[in-house]
Amino acid sequence: MTGSIDEGAPLWSLPPQYLKALAEQGTVKAFPKNTIIVSEGDRSDSLFIVQAGKVKVYLADEHGKEMLLGTHGPGEYFGEMILDEGPRSASVMTLEPSRFSVITTDQFKQFLVRHPDIGLELIKSLIHRVRALTKTVGNLGLLDVYGRVARLLLDMAVEENGKQVIKEHLTQQDMASRVGCSREMISRILKDLRVGGYITTDGERMTIAKKPPSAW
């Protein structure tokens, strides 16, 4: 497995030096692909730092319908709401063979006492995550399906050699789970965007050739 917590972490993670120090307090555990690590409703008693692999965070109903909240890879963490020891607010499943450093609630509390400066960084990280979730809720409530798909593509795109490229590979079902629609609807919208010259695809790589219109 590749990847480490020393790699550049996104805004919603902790600075690498803090993440590495915290990871050293935990127990390393490895899981195969498609393993449920956390189930919604479980008691919150541990924090997971991703050292290798990739996971998805999602909500699911009794019929198996899913809403994808996000994905995490090396240098990121999940299960941070362990201090109130309340129930897990979402489920987490591995998307590929993955390795984690697992920190218990007591270990996390002791680490915060020894390193009080990490508290501010943790608050900043949580703020970024709340902002992202607020934006997701707003998109679901205020945009139609096309608008949600267009917004998802724009949010995921990063600049590379002057082009807006979507590096993260998402299947049509993944996209459907993120925006709350059917896979068939995603297929039709992506086809229309390709025909209109708004996106191009090369294998699993997608490029935004021009900004999609705000309404279709």
Overview of this structure, please?
- Strands 1-8-3-6 form a 4-stranded antiparallel sheet. A 4-stranded antiparallel sheet has the order 2-7-4-5.
- It has 216 residues and is an alpha+beta fold.
- It contains 6 helices and 12 strands.
- The N and C termini lie far apart (42 Å).
- It has helices at residues 16-23, 105-114, 118-142, 145-156, 172-179, 183-195, and strands at 27-31, 36-38, 46-52, 55-60, 66-72, 77-78, 91-94, 98-104, 158-160, 163-166, 199-202, 205-208.
Instruction: Provide the residue-averaged pLDDT.
Output: 86
Count every beta strand, where a strand is a DSSP E run of 2 or more residues. Answer: 12
**Proportion of beta-strand residues:** 25-35%
- Strand line-up of the largest beta sheet: 1-8-3-6
Tertiary shape: elongated
Helix/strand-derived category reads alpha+beta
Total count of helical runs of at least 4 residues? 6
Indicate the low-confidence ranges by residue numbers: 1-11
Helix content: 25-40%
**CA distance, first residue to last residue:** 42 Å
Q: What Rg do the Cα atoms give?
A: 18 Å
